[in-house]
Amino acid sequence: MSLSSPAIFAAVFAIATTAVVAEPTAVSEARNPFSFEPGGRPAADEKVRTAVVLASKPKKGAKPVATPPELAPFATKLSKVFGYDQFEILGSATTVMDEQNERWLVPTPHFWLSVRATRERGSYRLKVKFFHDGRSILETETKLGPKSPVFIRGPVHTRGQVILFFEVRP
Prior knowledge:
Mean pLDDT: 75
Radius of gyration: 24 Å
Low-confidence stretches: 1-42
Oligomer: single chain
């Protein structure tokens, strides 16, 4: 008896799909999706700091302006990644991020952010919307953890590059 090609395919598909089905492993311990440590609670006084940074190059023959102290630990990496030598904080905002709540942060009169934070194990998942003078410029999602700041490239500015900075602060 000869099997047609569709019949062979159906038989192989049936064998393959039954072989792949597996039972999920049982979890015996209770998990809290909003805890930073297994069984722990997030710090009540923990805040998220946001800054709008302008990255630029110095004028010909001039030395770069000193990097603000908040950005000094990251200056070398920022220069390497973004290709600019000087960084200026245009404005910043700090707030406590509650679970599942949206916060409006207004670091400058012209730039503001809508941030929805969800706590996950050891970090926050941020849904960020960036606005300039009422126009939506950027919408993204990122993960932010303690001792692990996030820098997001924003729009090009007449004087350089706008960068968003997020950091967890105790």
